[in-house]
Design brief:
The structure holds two protein chains of two kinds. By secondary structure, chain A is α/β, with parallel strands linked by helices. In chain A, 38% of the residues lie in helices and 14% in strands. Chain A folds into two domains: 377 residues, Amidase signature (AS) enzymes, CATH 3.90.1300; 79 residues, no CATH class. An eleven-stranded mixed sheet of chain A has the order 1-3-2-4-6-5-10-11-9-7-8, sandwiched between helices. In chain B, the strands form three sheets. In chain B, strands 2-5-6-9-1-10-11-12-13 form a nine-stranded mixed sheet. Classes of the chains: A alpha/beta, B alpha+beta. Chains A and B meet through helix 9 and helix 10 of A and loops of B.
Chain lengths: 470, 477
């Protein structure tokens, strides 16, 4: 048997080892279980670990907002504490159909609402690079699991940055696909018009592979479409690629100098690989993106979370009548952040306020989309930092929701436009990973993979956290 | 009708009708759409609102709503949108109902209701598609004396397709409202969209009633009447409510906006009242669904599938028969059989009488009947014993039914056979005979009935009628 180093083993390599018979599925699975046993007590990336000793395929971790038949799916919330789905999400079913084996369910901010995974009702996840810091969020569990070698790859979900931002803070590769390319069926809904499932991986090729497994039209999700065939990237250069550098996303207030420097180096590297680099501007997207996001997402969330009433599943508190039961159940079962967003969203949808808030935000969303469309007439990909900062200390922003929301300033505009975005690590600042965000036109995942792969090769980022290097 | 002099108050009535479509599957999932299954057997993650489940609209339901839209003369939307309508209730698992708001499938039509006094055109504001709620079953908790109850929810009905039809406030009397509802029911049944069975709840309606000084066009405060499960009940409720509101205004009071819930089990009980809460349903377009753009070819094809509608048939048949007969035949679903029976040679009026009275009582499906055989029965009715005629009608829907064996049974009309029976009956009921002679003419039927009974239904009713009258009068001289 080949010794498996879960820190460095890619899924592609794992597949080769399995096919060559150099390692068995059970051995592979055991290697990850051992890594989880060793490091997860410190990191808390998993909410639930499966035990499938007879596993044959490549293991995968799945964010706990994604339904897994027979395996608890809590969405990081007390209100779903003992909920066990009777059906698989389409993405789960597709992973299984491709022979992937579920390792476990990863931690998330409650209902994917957060940027640090500190809003999980089951306690925060810690950053593998520095356990005193957050892994980002909401998909901190999936990102930390991949970086710490607790899974070769994972599924995340992204509404306003929940895949890209944790990947940035944990130093791995995460793709938020074009809205409509990956089924949302069975994914606990946060904001339906923004939610997208995507892969979290060690490198761009693994990311593309996993995307090819989950993408494509699903009869159970009307918003999905057929997608172009996924091309695994091979090119090492960027000849002919037009790279845009949106001023507002690169000069935004709050971007740390170390982050800016690492991103600038990556942009210069792109130029040296043959890309044509030029500046561009997305003024309205950045100025209004965050504000509109915090109307649309809470509005949809207030509606999507209304089904947690204690009647059919999940937590139920006792009450004198239906109303009292629902109120007590929701009070006890939902944390502060979902409550905050439900209230914001309910207000934004209220009669008399709808036009001013939700209606206007939808119009601005169209403006943001057009502004991006115009940029993609000139460019193939837009580069910027993914997160303005590196991983921040646990607890640093818990008391300040607005500061927490600003973490998503740079990821939100393209999410609002429904566009794909890829995070790749591009260096360290203060010993912590810096994420580079690549945003492409609708359905241009293959372009993002190509650019990401070439840059990744040239950057040579060592994805194993310094404290775990041997 | 309202108990108040005409020309004083004008009632203003609007209707909101819900019709359950009889599609194979539910509106947004693939569960069976079936009434009467054991509780919670036609359910799935979608209609139970499990986390992550998503709706996919039923194509058939959309097509049938378009068809109904055509029948109601509506404009079919080029773009229709499903909205979420939010409220918390145990029978609403998502805590929102997927419905339509400002972009319904069908809008701006009308249904013309023929009445004895002429046609009345009722505007249709809209007809839209939505999902039904589940069913709450309130049960008393066993072993509790304080009357505490529990509520069980049966989700079989939850998510079944429902069409909501809203009329303009164009109705001004209870009778026309009732006729409108009957005509609408017949229309949806003929289109094959729904069984529209009131007792099973597959057709339900709410009525908005207000009154105003006649001759004005103001709209005063309206009340909403709910839970009425029959057309007569609705008509009665409307009349009572009109009278109540007029009474209030004439006493110098004001009508409160409220909802009146009727007890369907007891038509005479006073309705339960509840204040209308200003509900904020927080409508917004359902982001899980995409706008519906019905293709022009489909809309045209569906228009072509609609035959002659009941309203127009009532008007056509009323040229031959009375309006009343035409109305009964069409709203009873009997007019096609009537046309065929008449075409086979039966007398139109005689055929209408038989169909609207004796035939309906048999419960035989009109579509199962051979019109030629029925025409023979209608023709021979006067000559046949009543019992034989009724028996023949009851069998008229059987496979290969032939009228011949029944026609062979001739009614007894010979006076020599009838007289002894008549004499016996008159002698046994001397007091009634005296009453008849002193002017109580209605008693004639009583004597005829007694004679028919005595003869085991074999007598010819017309001959009996005539002979009884002769004998009663003769005895009085």
């Amino acid at each position: 048997m080949t010794a498996v180093d879960t820190f460095t083993l890619t899924a592609e390599e794992a597949k080769r080892l399995l096919e060559a018979g150099e390692v068995s599925g059970a051995e592979l699975y055991q290697a990850y279980l051992a890594a989880i046993g060793e490091r997860d007590p410190e990191l808390h990336a998993y909410l639930h670990v499966c035990d499938s000793p007879a596993a044959e395929g490549i293991p995968i971790a799945i964010k706990d907002v994604i339904s897994t038949k027979g395996v608890p799916t809590t969405a990081g919330s007390k209100i779903l504490e003992h909920y066990v789905p009777v059906f698989d999400a389409t993405v789960t079913a597709r992973c299984k159909a491709h022979g992937l084996v579920l390792l476990g369910k990863t931690n998330t901010d409650e209902f994917a609402m957060g940027s640090s995974t500190e809003n999980s009702a089951y306690g925060p996840t810690h950053n593998p690079w520095d356990p005193t810091r957050v892994p980002g969020g909401s998909g901190g569990g999936s990102a930390a699991a991949v970086t710490a070698g607790l899974a070769p790859w994972a599924l995340g979900s992204d509404t306003g940055g929940s895949i890209k931002q944790p990947s940035a803070l944990c130093g791995n590769v995460g793709l938020r696909p074009t809205y409509g390319t990956v089924s949302r069926y069975g994914v606990v809904a946060f904001a339906s018009s923004l939610d997208q499932v995507g892969p979290v991986a060690k490198n761009v090729r693994d990311c593309a592979l996993l995307y090819s497994v989950i993408a494509g039209r699903d009869d159970n999700d009307l918003t999905t479409v057929e997608v172009p065939e996924v091309e695994l990237p091979t090119a090492q250069d960027l000849a002919g690629v037009r790279v845009g550098v949106p001023r507002e996303l690169n000069d935004a207030e709050g971007i740390e100098p170390g982050v800016r420097d690492a991103v600038q180096r990556a942009i210069r590297l792109a130029e040296s690989l043959g890309a044509e680099v030029d500046e561009c501007s997305l003024p309205r997207s950045v100025e209004y993106g965050l504000a509109c996001y915090y109307l649309i997402a809470p509005a949809e969330a207030s509606s999507n979370l209304a089904r947690y009433d204690g009647v059919r599943y999940g937590l139920r508190e006792q009450g004198a009548d239906f109303r009292a039961m629902v109120m007590k159940t929701r009070d006890a079962g939902l944390g502060d952040e979902p409550k905050r967003r439900i209230m914001l969203g309910t207000y934004a949808l209220s009669s008399g306020y709808y036009d001013a808030y939700y209606g206007t935000a939808q119009k601005v969303r169209t403006v943001i989309k057009r502004e991006h469309d115009a940029a993609f007439e000139r460019f193939d990909v837009l580069l910027s930092p993914t997160s303005p900062t590196v991983a921040f200390p646990l607890g640093a922003k818990v008391g300040d929701p607005l500061a927490m929301y600003l973490n998503d300033l740079l990821t939100i505009p393209s999410c609002m436009a429904g566009l794909p975005g890829l995070n790749i690590p591009c260096g360290l600042s203060e010993g912590l990973p810096v994420g580079l965000q690549l945003v492409g036109a609708q359905f241009s995942e293959n372009t993002l993979f190509r650019v990401g792969h070439a840059l990744e090769g040239a950057l040579g980022f060592d994805a194993v956290p310094t404290r775990f290097r041997r | 009708m309202t108990g108040v002099g005409p020309g004083t108050w004008e009632p203003v009535i609007g209707l909101e009708i819900h019709v359950q479509l009889k599609t194979e599957t539910k509106m947004f999932c693939r569960c069976r759409n079936h009434y009467g299954s054991p509780p919670n057997t036609n359910v799935c993650p979608v209609c139970l609102a499990f986390p992550g489940a998503l709706p996919v609209p039923n194509r058939r339901a959309i097509e049938e709503t378009i068809k109904l839209g055509h029948a109601l003369g509506c404009t079919i939307a080029e773009r229709a949108v499903f909205h979420r309508k939010s409220y918390f209730y145990p029978d609403l698992p998502k805590a929102y109902q997927i419905s339509q708001y400002d972009e319904p499938l069908c809008a701006g039509g009308s249904l013309t209701v023929p009445t004895a006094a002429g046609d009345v055109r009722i505007g249709i504001t809209r007809a839209h598609l939505e999902e039904d709620a589940a069913k709450n079953v309130h049960v008393a908790e066993s072993g509790r004396l304080d009357g505490a109850t529990a509520t069980l929810v049966d989700f079989n009905r939850g998510g079944t397709p429902l069409v909501e039809i809203v009329t303009e406030p164009d109705l001004h009397d209870a009778d026309t409202a009732k006729r409108f509802l009957q005509l609408l029911r017949q229309t949806v049944m003929e289109l094959g969209l729904s069984d529209a069975e009131l007792d099973k709840g597959s057709m339900r309606f709410d009525v908005n009633v207000s009154v105003r000084p006649a001759g004005t066009d103001e709209l005063r405060t309206r009340t909403e009447l709910k839970n009425m499960n029959s057309f007569n009940f609705a008509a009665k409720g409307i009349e009572r409510e009109i009278a109540r509101q007029i009474g209030i205004y004439e006493a110098g009071g004001t009508v409160d906006q409220e909802t009146l819930h009727f007890d369907p089990g007891n038509e005479d009980s006073a309705p339960m009242r509840s204040k209308e809460e200003a509900q904020d349903y927080r409508y917004f377009p359902d982001p899980d669904l995409v706008p519906v753009h019905p293709p022009v070819e489909l809309v045209d094809r569906l228009r072509g599938e609609i035959g002659e509608l009941p309203g127009s048939r009532i008007r056509r048949i009323a040229d031959t028969l009375s309006f009343y007969d035409a109305d009964v035949l069409v709203t009873g679903g009997l007019d096609r059989l009537w046309s065929d029976v008449v075409a086979a040679g039966a007398d139109p009026k005689e055929a209408a009488n038989v169909l609207a009275n004796q035939f309906v009582a048999t419960g035989v499906a009109p579509s199962a009947v051979d019109p030629a055989e029925l025409a023979k029965l209608v023709d021979a009715r006067a000559q046949m014993p009543r019992a034989a005629f009724d028996k023949a009608l009851a069998k008229s829907g059987d496979d290969g039914f032939s009228a011949e064996p029944y026609l062979a049974e001739k009614a007894v009309s010979d006076a020599s056979e009838l007289d002894p029976v008549i004499d016996r009956v008159l002698a046994a009921n001397a007091a009634q005979a005296e009453q008849y002679r002193s002017g109580k003419q209605g008693l004639l039927g009583f004597f005829v009935g007694q004679v028919m009974k005595e003869t085991g239904g074999k007598a010819d009713p017309r001959a009996v009628n005539e002979r009884v009258r002769e004998k009663l009068l003769a005895a009085g001289r």
